[in-house]
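re: that chain from earlier
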Amino acid sequence: MEPIRVLEMFMGFAVEGPLGGAERFGIELCHALDKTEIQPIACGLWDFGTPFEKQWLESLQAANIPAFTTAKWQESSPYQAFQQALKGLKTALAGQTVDIIHSHTQFTDVAALLLKRTLKAKALIRTVHNEREWPKRWLRQLILTNWLYPIMFEVEVGVSKQVVTNLNHRPGARLMGKTALCIHNSINLRRFEKLQVDKTAKKHELGLPAQAMVIGSVGRLTPQKGYAIFIESAQKVLAHLPQAIFIIVGGGELQPALTAQIQALGLEDKIILTGPQKNIESLIAIMDVFVSSSLWEGLPTVILESFALGVPVVATNVSGSRELITSAYNGLLVPPTDAIKLAESIIKVLTEKEFACQLSQHAKKVLLDFTIPQIASQYLELYKKLAQNRLIPLKDY
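^ sequence. v structure.
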């Protein structure tokens, strides 16, 4: 029997920036699926021109997984870039059919709708990786997310319980009597099993003192990540722990504004914006505490990565992080936008070593529920039932 052909769609392969967790998860899922039953095809809409994209493409191709991008990203002309991506997709897949189209991002949701007939797909799936869709485009949210998607997609998946709740509360979903499935994001623990990091050398590479306490974060430099609050908290932490150093790993639209904020506070020597980086694991490994200052989240896999590396986590009390962290048990939760509480929690982790160690030990236990083989098996069953035209009631998961 021929494997089920699944087109996995995301924005691109620029995982280190300006993209992130949804794209990395899509790539990991392609690798983890049982190739005797599923033939994944990895499609990134755009080439973002970053140094690391080629490596992700080559890793997939080396595993006999077709992988490609279809157009160049144009920051100044996103609509034109989208049209070119659609044209490129049709060219790349000309004469081919797929059984299922699985979208992982907002732009690919739209592309999936437009490609279903052309590719003769039996079913459309979209996985919603964030609590808020189209946060700057309320009309798209109203038309697409609230009404069109519940009608046109056979299955919608949320990566956390709150995302699923949001999907189920949409008027279109209620009218159609549809409920979303919850299939969590996950990480590949094998990435961490043999990881060895010379922390002194890595700090030297970044220009950090060998004895510095490192407080770090990883993510796109966008309003969602709350980095202005993180930087504000740094000033308060440094008043108590002047030997601390802050690093923010990633790139994005807010880099000029955050740089200006750091300069205005006179903290250029204490807060480093590293830009996009490869091998994120080795950077998290040198941190004494990982901070997620987000204003909203889906299910942040970077917190799981910190758990896997034994790095204690301080995070804002938003839904996705709250699903991973029980405060004072396996991490600390603080109110979003509260720089004072964030600073106090960072100081607590850095100064109470035994407490920090306990957080890390408890965090390791959480990982067992968020491994990529476990999640891939859930998607495998979903694909198989959809390919057989058997839709899945929520209770089956």
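The CA atoms of residues 88 and 284 lie 37 Å apart.
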